[in-house]
Design goal:
The chain is of the alpha+beta class. The protein is built from five helices and five strands. The strands form two sheets. The protein has a three-stranded antiparallel sheet with strand order 1-2-3, sandwiched between helices. A hairpin with an 8-residue loop joins strand 1 and strand 2. Helix 1 packs parallel to helix 2.
Length: 151
């Protein structure tokens, strides 16, 4: 989740980007919302659930945000088939281990830094246009570091 702001400063000018990267295709799945609570996170999970075939396991790497482990999130996950969603949590203060955090940083520097908008709606449109632009030339991430070399 990343925050973006309009020209007006303050909480009323902030939007939250909930996003994930498909490691096999490089596609960025994203939602822009006013807040990042359990209900917005469940909405993102439903978005992912609809984007993939029912037989596909969806594996997510997440930070320790309370919405990711809330009762509402767990209750919704209980309605899904076993094995549909698998969560792996990064250690506290380990956001650098999550690929999407690097994406957020690059996206903020290359897209969000240079925009000037006057409304939340315009900000959302700019963010989603930036996401669609990224998806035109997806980057498929591969690990080049071999675990056997670490020993």
């Amino acid at each position: 989740m990343r925050r973006a702001r309009t020209e007006r400063r303050g909480a009323q000018s902030t939007r939250r980007l909930l996003a994930g990267i498909d490691l096999l295709t490089g596609k960025v799945h994203a939602l822009v919302r006013d807040r990042h609570r359990s209900r917005e996170f469940v909405e993102f999970l439903k978005f992912l659930d609809a984007a993939y075939p029912r037989s596909t396991a969806i594996k997510l790497i997440l930070d320790n945000h309370s919405a990711h482990i809330s009762r509402e999130t767990k209750a919704w996950l209980d309605t899904r088939p076993a094995g549909r969603f698998e969560f792996t949590f990064t250690p506290k203060h380990g956001s650098r281990l999550n690929l999407i955090e690097g994406f957020f940083s690059k996206f903020a520097r290359s897209v969000l830094r240079h925009i000037r908008v006057t409304s939340k709606h315009e900000l959302k449109e700019c963010i989603m246009a930036g996401i669609h632009d990224v998806d035109r030339y997806p980057v498929i991430h591969t690990w080049s570091y071999k675990l056997a070399q670490a020993a």
